Amino acid sequence: MDMNSCKESESDLAELTRSSEYWFDDGNIVLVAEGGVGFRVHRGVLAHHSAFFRDLFSIPQPSDDKDMMDGTPMVHVSDTPMDVAHLLRALYNGISLIRHAGERLPFPFVASLFELAHKYDIDALRADMLLRLRSCFCHKYSTFLAQTSFQLVTANDPEQLLRSDLLEIIPSRDAIRAVDLVRLVDERTMLPVALYLCTLLPGAKLVSGTTLENGRVAQLSPADLALCIDARTNLVMRRIRAFNTAPAGVCRQPTLCAAVLQQMARMTHYQQPSLPCHVLANVDQAPMTSPPGNFLCAQCSAPLVAVSAEFRRSAWAHLPADLGLEIPEWDAAAT
């Protein structure tokens, strides 16, 4: 990041916009974000929380009127105004309030704070945001079972969000940014769930990326895009094999049930084209419904819930491999 080499002309300075939320009369430093939005804040607050700013402020700076705004020194940062405002909100309103509130936070807010906490060496904030991220992007199946669930975004929206007590993720909005974030900080144990959520996206969005709330565009790298494309096929084939079962031994209509079971295996993929193959769906959301007009006998339908639960655990166990990853810490134990 280039902190001071980004010089502004006098005409540029005249166009700087003051933040309506963070412009303190007694502030002694102006953070200038992308687009020329200024935040007049306190050096002491930044230095207290951030090792980066503490080191920066310890270096004597040359006196230059061009790097002053209303008599206050300026520091140029390569962050969006929205992200800077999120960070200042955490620092001024209290990191401890966010840490102990226990409320579920949306992924964009958590991701923004985590990125800047990582960038500016704000250890306490980074640790708290990482805890929230790991509540969903976990590597232990027991944690995934105990802490997370998939729920419909709205009653009329087929997309499912992933939710824990600490974090809420909407894949169409957040999945690609999650992969970028995990790659940025090299948290490999979080990568399988992040990439898996990307495999649930429509193909066009997977390729073109997502426009974030801060105005930037998140896109998968060519390597990660290839992993997701290959994983779609792997996940579909895994589900078809799992549910391509034969009628029960005590089935009273084996010909009909065999046909229905085969059709259900195909439906597990094709009934929801916008969600290519949701192998980690909650067991009670698994596509176990018989095709219209065809019904399994009681002896054949009863075992399917158990099959679905075991398939979900097995899908978790094989998720890194299906995504082309090696994660030695990956844990598929249910307890």
TrEMBL record:
InterPro entries: BTB/POZ_dom, SKP1/BTB/POZ_sf. SUPFAM superfamilies: POZ domain. Signal peptide: none annotated. It holds the Pfam family BTB. Residues 27-100 form the BTB domain. This is BTB domain-containing protein.
